[in-house]
């Protein structure tokens, strides 16, 4: 009988040991992060952030997922298919209000976490023409980007707001083709909506004395930011391009780290806190130099949708005013 009791006790002990080895010591949260097409900037950011957060916390694992990009992430976030995602501020704003092109759906469950980087507008003219404002382009030949591109959409918003969209001779073409046509005298101006320095503008400046129009000054003067609050003012520094002796006022759309409204506030707080440490930001820049624009003072630059409560807690702790967006 004693031998049987001992055997039973050994079995119980073995089971206890097996269960203790197989059961986790704590609950682990698994979060999905929507990036973008393979090799694109969105994917670099999503991969770098997912790995850093996962390595920072034992109880959080974030996996990066490829996607179609900004609007695809917006829709997946709204449905709760992913927990984090990168979305352009403009898409988030228009989607929230049911104003995406040919899509009246209101994607109102998406919340902003942090500004990642911006893409500014360039409006290139020849210095000899003396054009200092977009308002002087009436009747001029202007390349506005490829049809259906983000650059063309931004150009249409800007020139329409100024009452010029139907008063300029618009031409849809890519940046490099536009620069060549500009240098050959077939265009009076061309529009680029991308980070600086841009190779097509460098190309144009190598053959002609160019001028960047202060589109930011026009945006301020004519109330562009009130109509499109997802755009934010910025400056292209002097010397970015040959012959550009002064800083140029411009505006930019912002790539934003976003989340779904139902993601746990503490998870959001811990994730953003990990990335916005000196070590986290250094990790991001090592992964993609574009991340140099990430910093605490600019953490909510160009925000256009409500800020997630967990993110708001972090930014308030770091002295930022969190706007009350409805």
TrEMBL record:
Residues 1-27 form the signal peptide. CDD domains: PBP2_TAXI_TRAP (cd13520). Gene3D superfamilies: Periplasmic binding protein-like II. InterPro entries: TRAP_TAXI (IPR011852). Keywords: Receptor, Signal. PROSITE patterns: PROKAR_LIPOPROTEIN. This is TRAP transporter solute receptor, TAXI family.
């Amino acid at each position: 009988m004693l031998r049987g009791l001992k055997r039973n006790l050994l079995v119980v002990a073995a089971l206890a040991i097996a269960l203790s080895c197989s059961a986790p010591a704590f609950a682990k949260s698994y979060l999905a992060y929507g990036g973008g097409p393979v090799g694109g900037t969105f994917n670099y950011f999503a991969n770098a952030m997912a790995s850093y957060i996962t390595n920072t916390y034992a109880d959080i694992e974030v996996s990066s997922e490829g996607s179609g990009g900004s609007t695809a992430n917006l829709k997946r976030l709204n449905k709760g298919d992913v927990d984090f995602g990168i979305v352009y501020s403009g898409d988030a704003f228009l989607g929230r209000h049911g104003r995406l092109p040919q899509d009246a759906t209101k994607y109102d469950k998406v919340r902003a976490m942090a500004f990642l980087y911006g893409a500014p507008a360039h409006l290139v003219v020849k210095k000899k023409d003396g054009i200092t404002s977009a308002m002087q382009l009436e009747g001029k030949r202007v390349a506005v980007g490829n049809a259906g591109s983000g650059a063309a959409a931004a150009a249409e918003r800007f020139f329409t707001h100024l009452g010029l969209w139907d008063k300029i001779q618009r031409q849809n073409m890519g940046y490099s083709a536009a620069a060549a046509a500009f240098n050959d005298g077939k265009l009076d101006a061309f529009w680029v909506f991308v980070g600086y320095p841009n190779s097509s503008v460098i190309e144009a400046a190598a053959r002609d004395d160019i001028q960047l129009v202060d589109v930011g000054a026009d945006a301020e003067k004519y109330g562009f930011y009130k109509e499109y609050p997802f755009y934010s003012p910025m400056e292209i520094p002097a010397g970015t391009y040959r012959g550009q002796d002064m800083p140029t006022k411009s505006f930019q759309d912002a790539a934003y780290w976003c989340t779904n409204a139902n993601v746990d506030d503490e998870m959001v707080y811990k994730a953003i806190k990990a990335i916005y440490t000196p070590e986290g930001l250094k990790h991001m820049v090592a992964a993609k130099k574009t991340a140099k624009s990430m910093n605490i003072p600019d953490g909510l630059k160009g925000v256009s949708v409500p800020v997630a409560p967990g993110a708001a807690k972090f930014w308030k702790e770091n002295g930022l005013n969190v706007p009350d967006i409805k």
